[in-house]
């Protein structure tokens, strides 16, 4: 299938519709415009216009991304931070969005992930099972030292104790 080339005006209209449908960052919009062969000078102008009109806001995008990935994908802070870095979001905005995470919610999500990974881990010894669990939890972007506290505390781990011990 061949993609049609867009001029600057068509690119702006399509980019506005794209951003009105869902939250997007500059790099996603730039990629979409490049796929449709909008000239580089036109892309910069379109992005400036979208930011000025409020269609794109990197800070708003980072906060929404963090919230969605934590709540729906059950990702940890590390994986979320790396994903935002890959989308070329400013590190200050990433840090600010990650700071906005409610720790009680974060620890509840982590607790669910640890329990799920622990149930799925099959190993001949308790140590091996714990290591498999920690590896799975770390691959989801959660901090292994926090997950270790949950494993040590068992299923009835009090999250307030965990927060004070680790943070």
Give an account of the 3D structure.
With 167 residues, the protein is mainly alpha-helical. The protein is built from ten helices and no strands. The protein is elongated and about 65 Å long. 27% of the residues are buried.
β-strand percent reads: under 5%
- Note the total helix count: 10
Shape by Cα distribution: elongated
**What is the rounded distance between the termini?**
53 Å
Uncertain spans, ≥5 residues at pLDDT below 50?
Answer: 155-167
Radius of gyration: 21 Å
Helix-strand topology string:
HHHHHHHHHH
Q: Assign a percent range to the helix content.
A: over 70%
The main sheet comes to: none
Helix-and-strand structural type: mainly alpha
- Seen as an oligomer or otherwise, the chain set is single chain
Average pLDDT confidence is 90
Beta strands, count: 0
Produce a short descriptive summary.
With 167 residues, this protein is mainly α. The chain is built from ten helices and no strands.
SSE map:
Blueprint: H1 8-21, H2 26-35, H3 40-52, H4 58-71, H5 77-86, H6 91-99, H7 103-120, H8 126-139, H9 144-153, H10 159-166
Helix pairs in contact: 1-3, 2-3, 4-5, 4-6, 5-6, 7-8, 8-9
Features:
mainly alpha; 167 residues; 0% strand; disordered C terminus; elongated; single chain
